[in-house]
Design brief:
Length: 612
Protein backbone atom coordinates (compact mmCIF):
# COMPACT_ATOMS: atom_id res chain seq x y z
CA UNK A 1 0.00 0.00 0.00
CA UNK A 2 2.71 2.49 0.96
CA UNK A 3 4.83 1.60 -2.05
CA UNK A 4 2.35 3.23 -4.42
CA UNK A 5 1.48 6.21 -2.24
CA UNK A 6 2.20 9.40 -4.23
CA UNK A 7 5.23 11.35 -3.05
CA UNK A 8 4.73 14.95 -1.95
CA UNK A 9 5.66 17.59 -4.49
CA UNK A 10 8.64 19.85 -3.92
CA UNK A 11 7.20 23.39 -3.79
CA UNK A 12 8.45 25.80 -6.45
CA UNK A 13 8.80 28.45 -3.77
CA UNK A 14 8.68 27.81 -0.04
CA UNK A 15 8.46 31.42 1.10
CA UNK A 16 6.44 34.03 -0.77
CA UNK A 17 9.09 36.71 -0.72
CA UNK A 18 11.66 35.90 -3.41
CA UNK A 19 14.57 37.32 -1.45
CA UNK A 20 13.67 35.31 1.66
CA UNK A 21 13.17 32.18 -0.42
CA UNK A 22 16.63 32.58 -1.94
CA UNK A 23 18.11 33.19 1.50
CA UNK A 24 17.05 29.87 3.04
CA UNK A 25 18.35 27.97 0.02
CA UNK A 26 21.67 29.84 0.12
CA UNK A 27 22.30 28.62 3.66
CA UNK A 28 22.33 25.04 2.40
CA UNK A 29 24.18 25.65 -0.87
CA UNK A 30 26.93 27.84 0.62
CA UNK A 31 30.18 25.88 0.82
CA UNK A 32 31.20 24.53 4.21
CA UNK A 33 34.27 22.63 5.38
CA UNK A 34 35.19 20.55 8.41
CA UNK A 35 38.18 21.08 10.66
CA UNK A 36 41.26 19.80 8.79
CA UNK A 37 42.94 16.61 9.96
CA UNK A 38 46.64 16.12 9.25
CA UNK A 39 49.06 13.22 8.93
CA UNK A 40 50.92 12.38 12.12
CA UNK A 41 54.40 12.47 10.58
CA UNK A 42 53.62 14.83 7.69
CA UNK A 43 51.48 17.69 9.03
CA UNK A 44 51.54 19.48 5.68
CA UNK A 45 49.25 16.72 4.32
CA UNK A 46 45.64 17.46 5.36
CA UNK A 47 42.15 16.25 4.59
CA UNK A 48 38.70 17.67 5.29
CA UNK A 49 35.14 17.16 4.06
CA UNK A 50 33.18 19.80 2.18
CA UNK A 51 29.93 20.28 0.30
CA UNK A 52 31.58 22.68 -2.19
CA UNK A 53 30.74 20.43 -5.15
CA UNK A 54 27.09 20.06 -4.11
CA UNK A 55 27.81 16.72 -2.43
CA UNK A 56 29.71 16.16 0.83
CA UNK A 57 33.03 14.65 -0.23
CA UNK A 58 36.61 14.25 0.99
CA UNK A 59 39.22 16.87 0.01
CA UNK A 60 43.01 16.88 0.25
CA UNK A 61 44.91 20.03 1.18
CA UNK A 62 48.65 20.30 0.69
CA UNK A 63 49.74 23.13 2.96
CA UNK A 64 53.13 23.36 1.26
CA UNK A 65 51.60 24.39 -2.06
CA UNK A 66 48.14 25.41 -0.73
CA UNK A 67 46.59 23.07 -3.29
CA UNK A 68 43.08 21.77 -2.53
CA UNK A 69 41.87 18.66 -4.37
CA UNK A 70 38.56 16.81 -4.30
CA UNK A 71 39.43 13.20 -3.53
CA UNK A 72 36.14 11.30 -3.63
CA UNK A 73 33.35 11.60 -6.16
CA UNK A 74 30.43 9.33 -5.37
CA UNK A 75 26.72 9.91 -6.11
CA UNK A 76 25.73 9.79 -2.44
CA UNK A 77 28.84 11.39 -0.96
CA UNK A 78 31.66 10.40 1.40
CA UNK A 79 32.51 11.70 4.87
CA UNK A 80 34.57 8.98 6.60
CA UNK A 81 38.29 9.27 5.81
CA UNK A 82 41.72 9.37 7.39
CA UNK A 83 45.40 9.74 6.47
CA UNK A 84 48.32 7.36 6.87
CA UNK A 85 50.99 8.67 9.28
CA UNK A 86 53.39 9.47 6.42
CA UNK A 87 50.72 11.50 4.61
CA UNK A 88 51.19 9.52 1.40
CA UNK A 89 47.80 7.80 1.34
CA UNK A 90 44.19 8.68 2.06
CA UNK A 91 41.87 5.93 3.30
CA UNK A 92 38.11 6.39 2.95
CA UNK A 93 35.17 4.12 3.67
CA UNK A 94 33.38 2.82 0.60
CA UNK A 95 29.76 1.76 1.14
CA UNK A 96 26.84 1.33 -1.27
CA UNK A 97 24.38 4.21 -1.61
CA UNK A 98 24.60 5.20 2.03
CA UNK A 99 23.99 1.74 3.53
CA UNK A 100 27.16 2.08 5.72
CA UNK A 101 28.22 -1.49 4.86
CA UNK A 102 31.47 -1.81 2.93
CA UNK A 103 35.24 -1.66 3.18
CA UNK A 104 38.18 0.75 3.45
CA UNK A 105 39.86 1.85 0.23
CA UNK A 106 43.00 3.91 -0.27
CA UNK A 107 44.54 6.16 -2.85
CA UNK A 108 47.64 8.38 -3.03
CA UNK A 109 47.48 11.79 -1.36
CA UNK A 110 49.02 13.27 -4.50
CA UNK A 111 46.81 11.49 -6.98
CA UNK A 112 47.79 11.31 -10.63
CA UNK A 113 44.56 9.82 -11.91
CA UNK A 114 44.99 6.53 -10.07
CA UNK A 115 41.95 4.57 -8.97
CA UNK A 116 41.27 3.87 -5.32
CA UNK A 117 42.00 0.26 -4.34
CA UNK A 118 40.77 -1.91 -1.53
CA UNK A 119 43.10 -1.23 1.40
CA UNK A 120 42.79 -4.59 3.16
CA UNK A 121 41.67 -7.21 0.63
CA UNK A 122 41.55 -10.06 3.16
CA UNK A 123 39.30 -8.19 5.63
CA UNK A 124 35.60 -8.86 4.92
CA UNK A 125 33.00 -6.17 4.32
CA UNK A 126 30.99 -4.90 7.25
CA UNK A 127 30.02 -1.86 9.22
CA UNK A 128 33.06 0.14 10.41
CA UNK A 129 34.15 -0.50 13.99
CA UNK A 130 37.29 1.58 14.32
CA UNK A 131 40.52 2.03 12.38
CA UNK A 132 44.06 2.80 13.56
CA UNK A 133 46.81 3.11 10.94
CA UNK A 134 50.44 2.96 12.05
CA UNK A 135 53.70 2.88 10.13
CA UNK A 136 53.96 -0.90 10.29
CA UNK A 137 50.63 -2.09 11.69
CA UNK A 138 47.01 -1.32 10.90
CA UNK A 139 44.15 -2.39 13.16
CA UNK A 140 40.57 -2.40 11.88
CA UNK A 141 37.22 -3.37 13.31
CA UNK A 142 34.31 -4.88 11.37
CA UNK A 143 30.76 -5.34 12.61
CA UNK A 144 28.23 -7.68 10.97
CA UNK A 145 25.11 -9.54 12.04
CA UNK A 146 27.47 -12.17 13.48
CA UNK A 147 29.02 -9.66 15.91
CA UNK A 148 32.34 -7.78 16.00
CA UNK A 149 35.68 -8.92 14.61
CA UNK A 150 38.97 -7.05 14.95
CA UNK A 151 41.94 -7.53 12.63
CA UNK A 152 45.59 -6.49 12.57
CA UNK A 153 47.49 -6.14 9.31
CA UNK A 154 51.28 -6.04 8.87
CA UNK A 155 53.64 -6.83 6.03
CA UNK A 156 53.33 -10.48 7.03
CA UNK A 157 49.57 -10.55 6.45
CA UNK A 158 46.33 -10.07 8.32
CA UNK A 159 45.46 -11.62 11.69
CA UNK A 160 42.07 -11.87 13.34
CA UNK A 161 42.85 -11.14 16.98
CA UNK A 162 39.45 -10.59 18.58
CA UNK A 163 35.91 -11.82 17.96
CA UNK A 164 32.77 -11.31 20.03
CA UNK A 165 29.02 -11.60 19.69
CA UNK A 166 28.91 -8.28 21.56
CA UNK A 167 29.75 -4.84 20.22
CA UNK A 168 33.47 -4.03 20.12
CA UNK A 169 35.84 -1.75 18.24
CA UNK A 170 39.40 -0.58 17.68
CA UNK A 171 40.08 2.57 19.73
CA UNK A 172 43.75 3.65 19.91
CA UNK A 173 47.27 2.62 18.85
CA UNK A 174 50.36 3.68 20.76
CA UNK A 175 52.90 5.84 18.96
CA UNK A 176 55.48 3.03 18.94
CA UNK A 177 52.74 0.59 17.85
CA UNK A 178 53.42 -1.83 20.73
CA UNK A 179 50.03 -1.37 22.38
CA UNK A 180 46.48 -1.36 21.05
CA UNK A 181 43.38 -0.31 22.97
CA UNK A 182 39.98 -1.79 22.15
CA UNK A 183 36.53 -1.04 23.50
CA UNK A 184 34.24 -3.97 24.23
CA UNK A 185 30.92 -4.85 25.85
CA UNK A 186 31.58 -8.36 27.10
CA UNK A 187 29.76 -7.32 30.28
CA UNK A 188 26.58 -6.90 28.18
CA UNK A 189 26.25 -3.12 27.91
CA UNK A 190 27.52 -1.48 24.73
CA UNK A 191 26.34 1.92 25.94
CA UNK A 192 28.90 1.82 28.77
CA UNK A 193 31.92 0.06 27.26
CA UNK A 194 34.98 -1.37 28.98
CA UNK A 195 38.59 -1.14 27.76
CA UNK A 196 41.30 -3.68 27.05
CA UNK A 197 44.88 -2.98 26.03
CA UNK A 198 46.73 -5.72 24.17
CA UNK A 199 50.29 -6.23 22.95
CA UNK A 200 50.48 -6.04 19.17
CA UNK A 201 53.08 -8.82 19.35
CA UNK A 202 50.83 -11.80 19.96
CA UNK A 203 47.79 -9.76 21.12
CA UNK A 204 47.95 -10.93 24.70
CA UNK A 205 46.18 -8.78 27.26
CA UNK A 206 48.26 -6.10 28.95
CA UNK A 207 45.47 -4.71 31.14
CA UNK A 208 41.69 -4.47 31.44
CA UNK A 209 39.71 -1.56 32.81
CA UNK A 210 36.01 -1.48 33.64
CA UNK A 211 34.37 0.88 36.11
CA UNK A 212 31.28 -1.26 36.70
CA UNK A 213 27.66 -1.19 35.64
CA UNK A 214 26.47 2.07 34.11
CA UNK A 215 29.91 3.67 33.96
CA UNK A 216 31.47 3.73 30.53
CA UNK A 217 35.08 4.22 29.53
CA UNK A 218 36.47 5.60 26.27
CA UNK A 219 40.03 5.33 24.99
CA UNK A 220 40.67 8.76 23.47
CA UNK A 221 44.31 8.38 22.37
CA UNK A 222 47.75 7.26 23.47
CA UNK A 223 50.45 9.81 24.17
CA UNK A 224 51.91 11.14 20.90
CA UNK A 225 55.45 10.53 22.21
CA UNK A 226 57.05 7.26 21.13
CA UNK A 227 57.77 4.99 24.09
CA UNK A 228 55.21 6.74 26.29
CA UNK A 229 52.49 4.17 27.04
CA UNK A 230 50.07 6.56 28.76
CA UNK A 231 46.51 6.43 27.44
CA UNK A 232 44.07 9.33 27.71
CA UNK A 233 40.70 7.96 28.82
CA UNK A 234 37.23 9.41 29.37
CA UNK A 235 35.30 8.14 32.38
CA UNK A 236 32.07 8.93 34.25
CA UNK A 237 32.83 7.91 37.83
CA UNK A 238 31.31 11.07 39.29
CA UNK A 239 28.24 11.36 37.10
CA UNK A 240 29.65 13.18 34.08
CA UNK A 241 32.29 12.73 31.38
CA UNK A 242 35.73 13.43 32.85
CA UNK A 243 39.34 12.52 32.08
CA UNK A 244 42.08 10.28 33.39
CA UNK A 245 45.53 9.26 32.21
CA UNK A 246 46.23 5.53 32.51
CA UNK A 247 49.46 3.64 31.91
CA UNK A 248 48.31 0.07 31.21
CA UNK A 249 51.85 -1.29 31.56
CA UNK A 250 52.49 0.05 35.05
CA UNK A 251 48.88 0.27 36.19
CA UNK A 252 49.36 3.89 37.25
CA UNK A 253 46.25 6.02 36.85
CA UNK A 254 45.77 9.75 37.36
CA UNK A 255 42.31 11.28 37.43
CA UNK A 256 42.20 14.83 36.11
CA UNK A 257 39.97 17.03 38.25
CA UNK A 258 38.95 20.14 36.33
CA UNK A 259 37.02 23.10 37.67
CA UNK A 260 34.51 22.87 34.83
CA UNK A 261 30.82 22.16 35.45
CA UNK A 262 30.02 20.24 32.25
CA UNK A 263 31.26 17.23 30.33
CA UNK A 264 34.77 17.23 28.87
CA UNK A 265 36.77 15.47 26.17
CA UNK A 266 40.40 16.09 25.26
CA UNK A 267 43.33 15.47 22.94
CA UNK A 268 47.06 15.62 23.61
CA UNK A 269 49.35 18.48 22.69
CA UNK A 270 52.07 17.12 20.36
CA UNK A 271 54.76 16.89 23.06
CA UNK A 272 52.35 15.33 25.61
CA UNK A 273 52.97 18.20 28.04
CA UNK A 274 49.35 19.35 27.97
CA UNK A 275 45.81 18.48 26.92
CA UNK A 276 43.45 20.46 24.72
CA UNK A 277 40.18 20.18 26.63
CA UNK A 278 36.78 20.58 24.98
CA UNK A 279 34.16 21.54 27.58
CA UNK A 280 30.45 21.21 26.81
CA UNK A 281 27.54 22.39 28.93
CA UNK A 282 23.99 23.57 28.23
CA UNK A 283 24.33 23.72 24.48
CA UNK A 284 27.64 25.61 24.35
CA UNK A 285 31.29 24.60 24.26
CA UNK A 286 34.69 26.10 25.00
CA UNK A 287 38.38 25.17 24.68
CA UNK A 288 40.96 25.04 27.47
CA UNK A 289 44.61 24.04 27.88
CA UNK A 290 45.46 21.73 30.77
CA UNK A 291 49.11 21.48 31.82
CA UNK A 292 49.74 17.82 32.72
CA UNK A 293 52.65 18.64 35.06
CA UNK A 294 51.31 21.62 36.99
CA UNK A 295 47.58 21.00 36.70
CA UNK A 296 47.00 24.56 35.49
CA UNK A 297 43.87 25.05 33.39
CA UNK A 298 43.80 27.96 30.94
CA UNK A 299 40.68 29.14 29.13
CA UNK A 300 41.59 29.75 25.48
CA UNK A 301 38.88 32.40 25.18
CA UNK A 302 36.93 30.94 22.28
CA UNK A 303 33.68 32.84 21.62
CA UNK A 304 30.37 31.53 22.95
CA UNK A 305 28.83 29.00 20.62
CA UNK A 306 29.68 25.54 19.41
CA UNK A 307 33.12 24.03 18.79
CA UNK A 308 32.66 21.41 16.09
CA UNK A 309 36.18 19.95 16.08
CA UNK A 310 39.62 20.91 17.34
CA UNK A 311 43.26 19.84 17.24
CA UNK A 312 46.76 21.06 18.06
CA UNK A 313 49.35 21.52 15.31
CA UNK A 314 53.03 20.61 15.89
CA UNK A 315 53.86 24.28 16.59
CA UNK A 316 51.14 24.50 19.27
CA UNK A 317 48.56 26.29 17.13
CA UNK A 318 45.00 25.22 17.96
CA UNK A 319 42.72 24.85 14.95
CA UNK A 320 38.98 24.53 15.45
CA UNK A 321 35.62 24.99 13.81
CA UNK A 322 33.19 27.42 15.39
CA UNK A 323 29.68 28.69 14.84
CA UNK A 324 26.77 30.18 16.75
CA UNK A 325 23.06 30.12 16.00
CA UNK A 326 23.22 33.43 14.14
CA UNK A 327 26.68 33.02 12.58
CA UNK A 328 27.71 30.46 9.91
CA UNK A 329 30.63 28.14 10.73
CA UNK A 330 34.24 29.06 10.14
CA UNK A 331 37.59 27.32 10.65
CA UNK A 332 39.74 29.33 13.06
CA UNK A 333 43.31 29.07 14.31
CA UNK A 334 44.71 30.30 17.63
CA UNK A 335 48.49 30.72 17.76
CA UNK A 336 50.44 29.91 20.94
CA UNK A 337 50.57 33.64 21.75
CA UNK A 338 46.76 33.78 21.78
CA UNK A 339 46.31 35.46 18.40
CA UNK A 340 43.08 34.08 16.92
CA UNK A 341 41.89 34.41 13.33
CA UNK A 342 40.25 32.71 10.38
CA UNK A 343 42.26 29.82 8.94
CA UNK A 344 40.09 28.73 6.02
CA UNK A 345 37.27 30.40 4.14
CA UNK A 346 35.15 28.07 2.00
CA UNK A 347 34.91 29.10 -1.66
CA UNK A 348 32.01 31.21 -2.85
CA UNK A 349 29.48 33.34 -1.02
CA UNK A 350 29.19 32.99 2.75
CA UNK A 351 25.89 31.62 4.07
CA UNK A 352 23.40 34.29 5.17
CA UNK A 353 23.19 34.77 8.92
CA UNK A 354 20.16 33.82 11.02
CA UNK A 355 18.59 34.55 14.41
CA UNK A 356 20.20 33.92 17.82
CA UNK A 357 18.84 31.44 20.34
CA UNK A 358 17.87 32.13 23.92
CA UNK A 359 17.76 29.70 26.83
CA UNK A 360 14.69 28.42 28.64
CA UNK A 361 15.04 26.33 31.78
CA UNK A 362 11.71 24.65 32.44
CA UNK A 363 10.69 22.58 35.49
CA UNK A 364 10.17 18.98 34.39
CA UNK A 365 9.23 15.66 36.00
CA UNK A 366 12.86 14.85 36.87
CA UNK A 367 14.43 18.29 37.08
CA UNK A 368 15.08 21.35 35.00
CA UNK A 369 14.75 20.85 31.23
CA UNK A 370 16.92 23.06 29.04
CA UNK A 371 15.53 24.30 25.73
CA UNK A 372 16.87 26.62 23.05
CA UNK A 373 14.31 29.08 21.71
CA UNK A 374 14.41 31.26 18.61
CA UNK A 375 11.86 33.64 17.12
CA UNK A 376 11.42 34.69 13.50
CA UNK A 377 12.76 38.09 12.54
CA UNK A 378 10.13 40.82 12.77
CA UNK A 379 7.69 38.86 14.95
CA UNK A 380 5.82 41.07 17.42
CA UNK A 381 7.10 40.49 20.98
CA UNK A 382 3.64 39.60 22.27
CA UNK A 383 2.50 37.54 19.26
CA UNK A 384 1.55 33.89 19.71
CA UNK A 385 3.43 32.10 16.98
CA UNK A 386 3.13 28.85 15.10
CA UNK A 387 5.89 26.85 16.74
CA UNK A 388 8.07 23.98 15.57
CA UNK A 389 9.35 21.73 18.33
CA UNK A 390 12.41 20.30 16.59
CA UNK A 391 13.70 17.23 18.49
CA UNK A 392 17.32 16.16 18.10
CA UNK A 393 18.48 12.67 17.20
CA UNK A 394 20.84 10.41 19.06
CA UNK A 395 19.29 10.08 21.61
CA UNK A 396 22.67 10.75 23.19
CA UNK A 397 23.32 14.12 21.58
CA UNK A 398 22.15 17.67 22.25
CA UNK A 399 20.83 20.75 20.54
CA UNK A 400 23.43 23.49 20.64
CA UNK A 401 23.98 27.17 20.06
CA UNK A 402 25.27 26.38 16.59
CA UNK A 403 24.44 27.56 13.11
CA UNK A 404 21.66 25.42 11.62
CA UNK A 405 20.34 26.04 8.12
CA UNK A 406 17.43 23.77 9.04
CA UNK A 407 16.44 25.85 12.08
CA UNK A 408 16.81 29.02 10.04
CA UNK A 409 14.41 27.72 7.38
CA UNK A 410 11.66 27.21 9.94
CA UNK A 411 12.27 30.75 11.20
CA UNK A 412 12.14 32.25 7.70
CA UNK A 413 8.86 30.41 7.16
CA UNK A 414 7.32 32.18 10.17
CA UNK A 415 7.69 29.60 12.92
CA UNK A 416 9.20 30.03 16.33
CA UNK A 417 11.55 27.12 16.98
CA UNK A 418 11.95 25.27 20.28
CA UNK A 419 14.71 22.66 20.66
CA UNK A 420 14.45 20.49 23.77
CA UNK A 421 17.40 18.80 25.44
CA UNK A 422 15.22 16.13 26.97
CA UNK A 423 16.43 13.35 29.29
CA UNK A 424 18.79 11.26 27.21
CA UNK A 425 20.68 14.33 26.00
CA UNK A 426 24.39 14.83 26.60
CA UNK A 427 26.02 17.73 28.41
CA UNK A 428 23.87 17.45 31.54
CA UNK A 429 25.57 14.55 33.31
CA UNK A 430 25.34 10.77 33.18
CA UNK A 431 22.14 10.49 35.21
CA UNK A 432 20.27 12.78 32.80
CA UNK A 433 21.64 10.90 29.80
CA UNK A 434 20.81 7.47 31.21
CA UNK A 435 17.39 8.34 32.64
CA UNK A 436 15.67 6.94 29.56
CA UNK A 437 16.90 3.38 30.19
CA UNK A 438 14.04 0.90 30.40
CA UNK A 439 11.49 3.43 29.14
CA UNK A 440 12.92 5.16 26.07
CA UNK A 441 10.79 7.56 24.10
CA UNK A 442 8.08 8.00 26.69
CA UNK A 443 10.56 9.50 29.16
CA UNK A 444 11.83 12.08 26.69
CA UNK A 445 8.29 13.06 25.74
CA UNK A 446 7.46 13.90 29.35
CA UNK A 447 10.14 16.59 29.12
CA UNK A 448 8.89 17.73 25.72
CA UNK A 449 5.39 18.06 27.21
CA UNK A 450 6.74 20.23 30.03
CA UNK A 451 8.46 22.55 27.56
CA UNK A 452 5.35 22.60 25.36
CA UNK A 453 3.27 23.66 28.38
CA UNK A 454 5.82 26.39 29.13
CA UNK A 455 5.85 27.63 25.52
CA UNK A 456 2.06 27.90 25.47
CA UNK A 457 1.82 29.31 28.99
CA UNK A 458 4.49 31.95 28.35
CA UNK A 459 2.62 33.28 25.33
CA UNK A 460 5.21 32.16 22.79
CA UNK A 461 3.38 29.30 21.10
CA UNK A 462 -0.08 29.22 19.58
CA UNK A 463 -1.47 26.00 21.12
CA UNK A 464 -3.43 25.19 17.95
CA UNK A 465 -0.40 25.56 15.67
CA UNK A 466 2.36 23.51 17.26
CA UNK A 467 4.31 21.11 15.03
CA UNK A 468 6.61 18.33 16.23
CA UNK A 469 9.53 17.43 13.97
CA UNK A 470 12.80 15.54 14.07
CA UNK A 471 15.04 13.04 12.33
CA UNK A 472 16.43 9.67 13.42
CA UNK A 473 15.72 9.46 17.18
CA UNK A 474 13.94 12.78 16.79
CA UNK A 475 11.81 11.18 14.07
CA UNK A 476 11.01 8.31 16.42
CA UNK A 477 10.00 10.76 19.13
CA UNK A 478 7.86 12.65 16.60
CA UNK A 479 5.79 9.58 15.70
CA UNK A 480 5.55 8.54 19.35
CA UNK A 481 4.42 12.06 20.30
CA UNK A 482 1.70 12.06 17.65
CA UNK A 483 0.24 8.87 19.11
CA UNK A 484 0.70 9.51 22.84
CA UNK A 485 0.12 13.30 22.89
CA UNK A 486 -2.35 13.78 20.00
CA UNK A 487 -3.97 16.84 21.58
CA UNK A 488 -0.73 18.82 21.48
CA UNK A 489 0.21 18.65 17.80
CA UNK A 490 -1.18 20.12 14.59
CA UNK A 491 1.24 18.11 12.43
CA UNK A 492 4.26 15.85 12.63
CA UNK A 493 7.36 15.65 10.42
CA UNK A 494 9.39 12.48 10.97
CA UNK A 495 12.69 12.00 9.13
CA UNK A 496 14.29 8.52 9.01
CA UNK A 497 12.35 7.41 12.11
CA UNK A 498 11.86 4.25 14.10
CA UNK A 499 8.14 3.58 13.62
CA UNK A 500 7.73 -0.13 14.47
CA UNK A 501 10.42 -0.93 17.02
CA UNK A 502 10.17 -4.73 16.89
CA UNK A 503 10.54 -4.78 13.10
CA UNK A 504 13.31 -2.16 13.30
CA UNK A 505 15.22 -4.32 15.77
CA UNK A 506 15.03 -7.29 13.42
CA UNK A 507 16.36 -5.34 10.43
CA UNK A 508 18.82 -2.82 11.90
CA UNK A 509 22.63 -3.01 11.93
CA UNK A 510 24.15 -5.14 14.68
CA UNK A 511 25.74 -2.22 16.54
CA UNK A 512 22.30 -0.66 17.04
CA UNK A 513 20.82 -3.97 18.12
CA UNK A 514 23.44 -4.09 20.89
CA UNK A 515 22.61 -0.48 21.76
CA UNK A 516 18.89 -1.27 21.97
CA UNK A 517 19.52 -4.32 24.16
CA UNK A 518 21.27 -2.06 26.64
CA UNK A 519 18.73 0.75 26.38
CA UNK A 520 15.56 -1.34 26.61
CA UNK A 521 16.94 -3.94 29.02
CA UNK A 522 16.98 -6.79 26.51
CA UNK A 523 15.68 -7.89 23.12
CA UNK A 524 12.01 -7.84 22.05
CA UNK A 525 11.83 -11.52 23.01
CA UNK A 526 13.22 -10.79 26.48
CA UNK A 527 11.27 -7.61 27.32
CA UNK A 528 8.35 -7.57 24.86
CA UNK A 529 6.18 -5.21 26.91
CA UNK A 530 8.87 -2.50 26.96
CA UNK A 531 9.14 -2.59 23.18
CA UNK A 532 5.36 -2.53 22.85
CA UNK A 533 4.96 0.39 25.24
CA UNK A 534 7.72 2.39 23.58
CA UNK A 535 6.90 1.75 19.90
CA UNK A 536 5.04 4.36 17.81
CA UNK A 537 3.04 1.71 15.95
CA UNK A 538 1.33 0.77 19.24
CA UNK A 539 -0.37 4.18 19.26
CA UNK A 540 -0.92 4.66 15.54
CA UNK A 541 -4.71 4.52 15.84
CA UNK A 542 -4.65 7.54 18.19
CA UNK A 543 -2.83 9.76 15.66
CA UNK A 544 -5.10 12.55 14.45
CA UNK A 545 -2.69 15.14 13.01
CA UNK A 546 -1.37 14.89 9.46
CA UNK A 547 1.97 13.07 9.24
CA UNK A 548 4.91 13.43 6.86
CA UNK A 549 7.54 10.69 6.85
CA UNK A 550 10.87 11.01 5.01
CA UNK A 551 12.95 7.83 4.70
CA UNK A 552 15.91 6.33 2.83
CA UNK A 553 15.62 3.02 1.02
CA UNK A 554 19.09 1.89 2.17
CA UNK A 555 18.94 3.00 5.80
CA UNK A 556 20.59 0.42 8.13
CA UNK A 557 19.66 2.37 11.26
CA UNK A 558 15.94 2.95 10.74
CA UNK A 559 15.15 0.40 8.00
CA UNK A 560 12.42 1.00 5.47
CA UNK A 561 10.24 -2.08 6.18
CA UNK A 562 9.26 -0.98 9.67
CA UNK A 563 8.32 2.46 8.34
CA UNK A 564 6.10 0.87 5.70
CA UNK A 565 4.41 -1.16 8.45
CA UNK A 566 3.48 2.07 10.24
CA UNK A 567 2.28 3.86 7.13
CA UNK A 568 0.16 0.86 6.12
CA UNK A 569 -1.64 1.19 9.43
CA UNK A 570 -2.27 4.88 8.78
CA UNK A 571 -3.55 4.01 5.31
CA UNK A 572 -5.94 1.38 6.68
CA UNK A 573 -7.54 4.11 8.81
CA UNK A 574 -7.61 6.63 6.00
CA UNK A 575 -5.50 8.92 8.17
CA UNK A 576 -3.80 11.85 6.40
CA UNK A 577 -0.14 11.25 5.71
CA UNK A 578 2.52 11.90 3.09
CA UNK A 579 5.57 9.76 2.39
CA UNK A 580 8.78 10.86 0.71
CA UNK A 581 11.40 8.18 0.10
CA UNK A 582 14.79 8.61 -1.48
CA UNK A 583 17.60 6.38 -2.74
CA UNK A 584 20.18 6.69 0.04
CA UNK A 585 20.67 5.77 3.68
CA UNK A 586 20.24 7.49 7.03
CA UNK A 587 20.05 11.00 5.60
CA UNK A 588 21.53 12.47 2.46
CA UNK A 589 24.94 14.02 1.72
CA UNK A 590 23.64 15.53 -1.53
CA UNK A 591 22.79 19.22 -1.14
CA UNK A 592 20.07 19.20 -3.82
CA UNK A 593 18.38 16.25 -2.12
CA UNK A 594 18.58 18.00 1.25
CA UNK A 595 16.97 21.11 -0.25
CA UNK A 596 14.10 19.03 -1.62
CA UNK A 597 13.53 17.30 1.70
CA UNK A 598 13.62 20.52 3.74
CA UNK A 599 11.24 22.26 1.33
CA UNK A 600 8.81 19.34 1.53
CA UNK A 601 9.01 19.18 5.32
CA UNK A 602 8.55 22.86 6.08
CA UNK A 603 5.90 23.37 3.38
CA UNK A 604 3.93 20.40 4.81
CA UNK A 605 3.99 22.05 8.24
CA UNK A 606 3.11 25.47 6.82
CA UNK A 607 0.02 24.03 5.17
CA UNK A 608 -1.00 22.32 8.40
CA UNK A 609 -0.93 25.57 10.41
CA UNK A 610 -2.25 27.92 7.74
CA UNK A 611 1.00 29.62 6.70
CA UNK A 612 0.68 28.36 3.10
Amino acid sequence: MTRSHPAPRVPDRLIGDAEADARWRARFTAARISTPDWALDAPEANIYVSNASGVWEVYAWDRTTDEHRKVTDRPNGTVIATLTPDGKSIWWFDDTDGDEFGSWVREPFHSSGSTAERALPDVPDGYPAGLEIGRGLTAVGVSTDAGSTLYAHTGDGTTEFYRSDDDAGVSALSRDERLLAIAHSEHGDSRHPALRVVHTDGFGTVADKWDGAGKGLGALEFSPVSGDSRLLVSHERRGKDELLIWDPETGRETEIALDLPGDVLATWYPDASALLVLHFRSGRSSLHRYDVTTGALTDLGTPAGRIGGAGVRPDGTVEYSWSAAHTPPVIRAQAPDGTDGVLLNPPGERAPESEPVTDAFVPGPAGQVHALVSRPSGAAPDARLPTAFVLHGGPHAADEDRFSAYRATWLDAGFAVVEVNYRGSTGYGSAWRDAIEGRPGLTELEDVASVHDWAVGSGLADPDRCVVAGASWGGYLTLLALGTQPQRWAAGVAGVPVADYVAAYADEMEQLRSFDNALFGGSPEEVPQVYTDCSPITYVDAVRAPVLVVAGDNDPRCPIRQIENYLDRLAERGAPYEFYRYDAGHGSLVVAETLSQVAIEVHFAMRAVGLA
